[in-house]
Structure formats: C-alpha cells, structure tokens
Specification:
two-stranded antiparallel sheet; alpha+beta; globular; 4-stranded antiparallel sheet; single chain
Length: 476
C-alpha cells in the first residue's frame, strides 16, 4: 500500500515525460527497459499507441530516482507516475482522477502518434495575451524556454513562427536531470519541497498541453495534480467533499506598515522590514499548517501580499490543526504585535466537481473570509459563550522613568538607545525592524526556524550566503 508521500511524488512526476519527449527526436533518449514498457503504459487508439510521454516519465523515474528518502518505495513511485493513463488499481486511479481534475475537464486530446513533432514547436503563451487596451490587442507574447530567472521570466513578442524547439527543450531536460540528482534531503517532506523547486525552475516555461491553447505551464499542472492526489488519498473514504479549501490573511496591514512616526529616524529601514515581516508571517502560517498535516508546498495554491490559499484534505486531523492554528495565531497577535495585525482563517469543504468552476469556489471562500473578518480574534476573546474580559487588556506600558513610549511607533514601551546621535526610547520591535531593514538590502536567503520567535510559529533568519543562513538557522 502506498503512503501519501509516494502518492504526491508520483503525481508530481506523472507528466515530467512531456519535457523528455519534446527534448528528443522520436524514439531517442529511451533505455531499452523503458521502451519495453510502451505496451503496458500507453493507451491505444485504433491500433496505435498514444500518450508516448508516459514512456519518458518511466525513463526518468527508472534512471534518476536512485535516491529517495527512507519510507519512499521507488517501485511505488514508478507505478504511480507511469500508469496514470492505464491505471491498474484504485491507488493508480487516484493519480488519474487528480490529473483529470487538474486539467479542469475531461477533454478530447489530439492523438500524438510516435514521430510527430508538433509539440516541439509550441511555446507557452503569456497572460499578457489576454490584455486588450482601448480595443487594441497587445499582440502575441510567449515565454522563452529557459530556466526560471528574473532576466528570463518576462515574455517576448512572438512572431508566430513554429520553429523546432527540440534543442531548447533538451537543454531544460539536461538541467532538470542534473539538479534533480543533487536532491539528497533525507526527510520526505523537505525532499518533496526541494523536488518541487527543481521542477519549477525547469518546467515553468513549458506548456502543459499543446493540443489546446497553451497558456498553462507544465509546472502548474504537475503541482496542482500532486496537491489534488494527496488530498484524495488522505480524505475520508467516499467523502462527497474530499477537499478543504483554506484561505487566510492579516487584517490591519496598512496601519501596521505605516504606524511609524515621521522624523524618528530609520523610517525606510523599518518600512522594508515590516513589509517583509507581513509576507513572512503569512508564509510561516502556510508552513506550519502544511508541515503539521505532512503535506508539501504543492498544496499552497497562492501566497502573496499577506494572503494565502491552501488545498487540504477534508479530514478530522485537518480540522484539529486549523483549530490549533486559529488559537495560536490569536495569542501571537496579542503577545507579539499588540493586535495590530489580526489574522483570519476561513475554510470551505468542496467536491471535485465544484473545483471545476474554481472561480465560483473562490467567490464562496471569499464570502466566508469576510464573515471571519467581522469577528477578529474571537478565538482568544471569547471563552465558551462569554467574553474573556481580561484578554481585552494588553500588557501595561513602561513608565517614563523606564524609558517611556517608543519614539518610533508610540505604541509600546521603549528602552533607551542611540539613534542618530540621540538617546531615545525605542521598543524591541522597532529596534528589530531597523536591524532587519539594514540587513535586508544585502540578504539573498531567508530561513524559517521552528520554536519561539517573532513569527506566529517560529522565527526567521536572513543571510547573504546559503551557508550563512544554514548556520544561523542551526541547520549545520
């Protein structure tokens, strides 16, 4: 019996063969062992084998998964990844169902017989093609077939010529294989997250399907298929609503960001730090919930601007974790930020069919979030059916003799510190903001650490080098 990490990894790799197929001429790049599997893996259409990408998926798993964390069986991962078009049992069908849901609908696919090169001539279309200003279309924009990098992420104006892209695909395939082999993380959760990152780097620019309008990347399809498969495996058997969509955000962001006194010194540093802090606080909540449920970052659908959306299994365990998260978030808000930031979480059980109209589901989820915003911090302010009056009071501020109000935020008690040649009271949070803002301009890495800290469920560290952040986070 497969475990949920094998299910997730198998789903994450189920279509990686699309890159392998486009990176090679027909029949090339395959070992004899993979070629012998064609009759077992490929569906048949009027006597011809189709969906040849599954053979390249099999090749990838057979040749490049020599290392897997303890508890992950290579044969299980191979079966789950390679048999999704010809499932043999109920476990295989989980990947098939997740693949179908991820695609958005059961659609008639163009048969791609061995030898056709059409898929090697199609680029990923950019979202800018949907922009129409004053009736003027922006033209055709596409993405380069390059590893993910800020310099390569912006689309280019495409002349529409369907040139052979095999060499570009092959360069991506070679890079993927090389970086994949470096993933030797022994923990299944961390291994899967790193695998997700490697796949993002090389498949973000590849169209998932070339027989329809090619605006969905292979990476997005792999990620959502893995998220759906993990939930289907873990959800209550036969549950009509196996999925639980969770969204969350932080109220009071604007007041928190700009609640600083002009002329106190270090304003730019503190603004940089507070903006980062809001983003990291949301990411920290995402990591906590997913790690407690042993789900990788595949299940984070969105995280930006202090707001996030997760796809979770609809289970009692998930409900308990969310209840724990709500309570701890409320306590953190009161203790660390004086309730200036107040977190909200809203969940919505959904069926697979409902996910087909994802926009409508997000609309319903947004309505639930608005209801949660109308009763902020209720987890700590209400005990049973009564108000918890003592929790409405924050800790007493320090007296003037101890330093007085913080010169920067005017909201917390400060300690006397030197700021631009003046001795003024500065609270610990504003002092930390200034230090983080100073380091942020040179930092290249950030690490989350479990345990007590300024974030809701831990702390973070910045560093200029990978080894430095590992050392500061006590990872080495």
């Amino acid at each position: 019996m497969a475990n949920h990490f094998e299910i997730i990894l198998g789903a994450l790799l189920h279509d990686v063969g699309k890159l392998g197929q486009r990176a090679h001429a027909a029949g090339e790049g395959l070992s004899s062992a993979a070629q012998r599997l064609a009759d077992y893996l490929c569906p048949s259409d009027r006597g011809r084998l189709t969906h040849h990408h599954v053979i390249y998926t099999a090749e990838f798993v057979l040749s490049h998964t020599a290392f897997l964390p303890e508890g992950l069986d290579r044969e299980q991962v191979f079966r789950l990844a390679a048999y999704h078009h010809r499932p043999q049992d109920e476990t295989d069908r989980i990947i098939t169902e997740a693949d179908r849901l991820s695609s958005g609908a059961e659609r008639e696919e163009v048969v791609d017989p061995a030898g056709t090169s059409a898929s090697r001539r199609v680029r990923l279309r950019a979202i800018t093609n949907e922009i129409n200003l004053r009736g003027q279309a922006t033209g055709l924009w596409s993405h380069h077939l390059k590893p993910l990098d800020p310099k390569e992420a912006f689309p280019f104006r495409d002349d529409g010529q369907r040139a052979d892209l095999t060499a570009e695909y092959h360069a991506l395939w070679t890079g993927l294989v090389k970086d994949w082999s470096r993933n030797r993380v022994p923990d299944p959760w961390a291994f899967t997250n790193r695998a997700l990152s490697v796949l993002e780097r090389y498949t973000w620019c590849i169209p998932s399907a070339t027989n329809v309008y090619p605006d969905i990347s292979l990476f997005d399809h792999l990620k959502t298929t893995a998220a759906l498969a993990g939930c289907l495996f873990l959800a209550r058997e036969g549950a009509p609503e196996p999925f639980l969509l969770l969204t969350g955000d932080f109220g009071g962001i604007q007041d928190y960001l700009f609640g600083l006194r002009l002329g106190a010194g270090g304003l730019a540093r503190r603004l940089r730090s507070r903006s980062l802090f809001v983003s990291l606080a949301a990411e920290n909540v995402v990591h906590f919930i997913l790690r407690r449920l042993r789900l990788p970052l595949t299940n984070c659908i969105l995280s930006a601007g202090g707001r996030f959306t997760l796809l979770l299994p609809n289970t009692e365990v998930a409900e308990r974790v969310l209840a724990e998260a709500r309570t701890q978030l409320g306590e953190w808000s009161r203790r660390e930020v004086g309730c200036e930031l107040h977190p909200h979480l809203a969940a919505l059980p959904v069926s697979g069919e409902e996910l087909r109209d994802f926009g409508a589901v997000l609309g319903r989820l947004g309505e639930r979030l608005e209801q949660e915003k109308a009763r902020p911090l209720r987890e700590i302010l209400v005990r049973g059916e009564e108000w918890s009056e003592e929790d409405f009071l924050l800790d007493a501020l320090v007296s003037a003799q101890e330093g007085g109000l913080c010169d920067s935020c005017q909201r917390r008690g400060g300690r006397l510190r030197q700021v631009r040649g003046r001795t003024v009271p500065v609270c610990d949070r504003c002092h930390e903001d200034a230090e983080v803002g100073r380091r942020l301009v040179r930092a290249r890495y950030v690490a989350f650490c479990e345990g007590a800290g300024s974030l809701p469920f831990g702390s973070f560290h910045l560093a200029e080098a990978e080894t430095d952040v590992a050392r500061e986070a006590h990872l080495v």
